[in-house]
Amino acid sequence: MVSILITAGPTREYFDDVRFLSNASSGRMGCALAEAAMAAGHQATLVLGPVEMTPPAGVKIVSVTSALQMQTAAKDVFATSDVLIAAAAVSDWRPAERQSGKPARQPGNVHVEFVPNPDIVAGLAANKGSRVVFGFALESVSAGMSAAIERGKRKIIAKQLDAVVVNLHDTIGSDEAEFVLCHADGREQRLARSGKRRAADYLVNAAVELWQSRNPAGEAPQEIHPET
Ligand code: C5P
Questions:
Q1: Integer-rounded Cα radius of gyration of the chain
Q2: pTM beyond 0.90, yes or no
Q3: Domain extents in the chain
Q4: Which one, 23, 94, 176, 207, has least CB within 10 Å?
Q5: Which of 17-21, 45-49, 217-221 has the lowest mean pLDDT?
Q6: Cα 172 from Cα 55, distance rounded (Å)
Q7: What is the CATH number of domain 3-94+115-214?
Q8: Whose CA is nearest to atom 2 of ligand 1?
């Protein structure tokens, strides 16, 4: 049995107590990954941003709202995980300041300063040891698949991933997935458009296979304290 951490869903970055910056991630891919992990006999923990859907029964859920909360929760669970699949659509920025209450609307334009959020998967992968870390690269449809693959491959290096799931942004919020799984060793595996659960089975299997090849005796992961 392998311990699989999945980050999923969007994050919300509040300007004040009511308004926030977020995105359209439904959390479906992450929930499908958790379901697939359990169906294959593994242990799954979902660090999950705010979503409408009900996560699969039996999965350990750590609910978070913001990217900073997701980072803290993921770091904590990663210490005792074998595999991380980072499916979360983490907001790239958060407002520099959060006001309290609901400040009244004022006439004219509003300028909000955003600061970058930490890259959660990169921070964890930097100290992964023998763990396996997969990320996602959701690229603009207009870029086309081959440019998307090139960008995805750059993410493997920049974030020290073992593989990246490259897909186009029309899959966000959809029931289906179509992707190319690019491995750090240069292999590319294409999955034709299919249900997210089938795609999830494929990804869990690929990540577990890699973990098993790296940990033939199935040793427990060493404790780590990633600097993020
Ligand atoms: O750089 P980009 O946002 O395209 O990278 C996507 C991958 O990185 C996904 O696996 C996503 O979950 C992860 N990510 C993260 N923290 C961020 C931004 C992205 O873990 N702040």
A1: 18
A2: yes
A3: 3-94+115-214
A4: 176
A5: 217-221
A6: 17
A7: 3.40.50.10300
A8: 137
